[in-house]
Amino acid sequence: MSIDIEKRLARFNDLIPSKIPFVEGKLKGHQDRKNYSIVGPGVSEDSKQNVKIAEAHGFNIGAVSAAPMNGSGLHSHTTAEVFIIHAGSWRFYWGVNGEEGEVILSKGDVASFPTNMFRGFQNVSDEEALMFVALGEDDPGVITWTPRLLKEANESGMLLMEDRSLVDLNKQKVPEGKLVTKPLEDKELESFDHYTSDEIEKFVIRYNDNKNYVDDEHYNSNSIINYLDSFEIHGKKIEPKIPHKTGFGLTLLKGVSAHMHAYSINSSEVYNCLNGKWEVTCNDEKVILEPRDSFSAPKNSTRSVKQISNDEGSLFIVRQSN
Prior knowledge:
The protein has helices at residues 147-155, 186-189, 197-201, and strands at residues 9-10, 33-39, 51-53, 59-66, 71-76, 81-87, 90-94, 101-105, 110-113, 119-123, 129-136, 144-145, 158-160, 166-168, 204-205, 214-215, 223-228, 231-233, 236-238, 248-255, 259-264, 269-275, 278-282, 285-289, 294-297, 302-307, 313-320. By secondary structure, it is mostly beta strands.
């Protein structure tokens, strides 16, 4: 089976972002950010958001970059949302008022946030920060904003319609027949879940915490963190660190000579390079991934990966499991 390898390759520097992807896009602290759709449309409210790979994978992958002290306001998802930090330091905070807890994540850290809770995030480093985000299912659902944020967004001239489209009142009127999304009432807020910082910390895996790594016992070349769903490599099954059922698996492969021998699976799979340089072979075609690049291997293709730089490399693997 031949593939068009270029259509499955997402070089980060070639991606086209949305600069106002959500209703909060004109608010201070949310203005200077970019949203990228890499696999699937994600939950962007921008109808013109560019999608690099539209093919259904059973999950969505996007990315967010933000200037210092910028990020996303408090929102909730109905499907899984897993954050993979690539650059900078990100503060995550949660609760309807953002005061229930917080955690700071740095490069290589991963956090899986539960559904049905309000969370936001902010770049707390001195330079532009970047993270990738994996979302569950082909249709990851819609975002629910806190009443305060939605009201502030409306006051800025941005309206979210009930069909999830955006209207900028500085550029257009509300189309005939469309209804504006109303903020949640206090009683509706009671259905959302609450977490302490200690509880959320159980769903955070630190890149620099050596106790998280295991070896697949294959020439002592592969250090592995398996975050979500069981993962099999070279005949060894590795159980996940996080118990969430997301519809996809997430694994980190790390090492100077890290590799995976040729294998084939009936599942969609995406490789995302954190650092190093990785040669991916897919049905005898080759592609090189550098930091921030991603590649989607089609179902039933035969693929292998190896780290080819002189330094240690790290590669995230997102695999369909639903």
